[in-house]
Amino acid sequence: MAGSADAAEILVTADIATSTTWTADNTYNLQTQIYVLPGATLTIEAGTVVASTPTANGSGSLAVTKGAQIFVCGTKQDPVIMTSTADVATWDVDASHPTGKDPKTGTWREAANEWGNLTIMGCGYISEDETPGNVPTCDEDNVAAMEGLVAQFPGDPNVLYGGGDDDDDSGKIEYLSIRYGGRVVGLTNELNGLSLGGIGRETDINHVEIMNNVDDGIEIWGGCVYLKYFSIWNVGDDSLDIDQGYRGCIQFGLIVQGYSLQSSQGSGVGDNCIETDGAENSDWQPVTSTTIYNVTVIGQPLSGDGGTAWRDNARVQYRNCLWMDLGDQLVRFDNLDGDGAQGYGHNGTLSWADTWTTSSAVTSLVNPCPDPSAIYKSQLPGNLAEIRDSVFFRNLAGGGTGVQTDPAYTEAVARGVFNAGNDNVLITGTAVADQPITSITRGALVPIPGLPQLPVTELDPRPANEALTSVDQAPDNGFFWPARYRGGFAPGEHWVSSWTASFAFGFTPLIYPWCEEKCSLAGVTGHPRLIGTGDLTPLSSNRLDLYNAAPSALCVLFVGSGLTPVPFKGGILKPWPAALEVFLFTTPSGTLPIPFILPAGFSGFSLVFQYAIQDAAAINGVSLSTSLTGTFQ
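The structure corresponding to this sequence follows.
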């Protein structure tokens, strides 16, 4: 565990002009809005805590300017935490944790606005019509001032994002937990948990959590950044908000609606789960065109807004997602953003209805970009707007009972979401035994006037029932993972365990699956996954669970203690020169549990499991795993 009992507090008072590293043996208290300036790189070591002191005049915050980079190097064991000093219980030294910071403890508080946020600004294309000089076509000179930042003089470059480089690289973020943020700068000008403006696709963002924020959880303006493994809980506005021509891809997410403060909706109480604006005006380019795979959305049943909100020509493909307990419509046609945009169909752009029936290969002919194929790369074959291969449960807006004719699905039905070819599944009724997740518990009613809340107090979001297997899967294209299930979690897998605030506060359980590397070959019938569970001690009960294999396929399982790669049918199989065991079996339904008990004497080394599965649809007829490793103490 990172940290030490003599950790020093570093007061950060000046912008970062030269490359700097923040280390886990210190905590960093930002005294004001701190900028990482162009040309500088900020590296934050695993286990580091950034904790600003709440003040009446606004607490510290961190912004990375265009031309700068940030590298947040957290791990599952030692995440980087950005929070306030009032959140001391989850990271400070105390008698029960004498070795240092412990991100795995704490108690949830009704709080937000205790520090600022993390803002990153890049050079990707954006569509924003309020900045003087901006034009309605894709132009490298189009820029915008970042929400929540205050320019020191007209044209201050430190608050501007946008440009003409969709491949811009702003750094890398891994295992980052952002808690109790969202400083209020002014009326309708509040900081989001994570703000991403014009970020390029070479930027790597994965395993990011937002817990309690006064405004949006994650907001993205333009650019093409790809986002994978995100968790957003109890934010005070939209959980995920997309604007100004975002054209990246997103996979594996968890959204849990709730509240951070007993305030209004949008400033403490959650609004839409996912809100998408196309362009800032709706006939400008680029326009938001994105594909979102494998997100689990847990709504707020009494007062939450839409599962998906659509404005200003937004184009989104939702696939293999899970939607439950929504307090409003699954598809919410907002059309206008309230900021002067004209909505779908303006100036010859596609109408709302046509967007759902038009191929994703079609790009706007209004204010066209010089090379549309270079600008629009994220959507997959299908339609510009669609919801496919997803599961819906207990969305009871307007007094519904859990059937397709309920008010929650009015617009979805009109847009053809439930047409047979979309492979969507509506679980009718409200029976707990039929729910598509493992378990959920809600606390007592919080009677916020006009916005009553039923907070989620315990959640195991691993899939169940109709979420266990999807009809199709994402392509294995270098970003998307070919996951054949619905929602953000694989069967038996729980990627929010141990590093998140949701785990520290007891909302999500401790699950320790053994680690599996990415398959070198995968079949279109389903990416096979081998999950290991158990306490990994001698004479203990353990189990392997094989998921998503081809039904009735022959499987070869090797068990050993070392890796020696050898070619096998066009791929790389890693058996062992002296394998302890080799097993042959079939996979009747594509899912198979394999229980076992470790004999005495197994300690101090890794036991490695390797499988190969006959799969007629796979490359060379075989799906391979690289390794699944359990380390015995």
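DSSP finds four helices and 43 strands in the chain.
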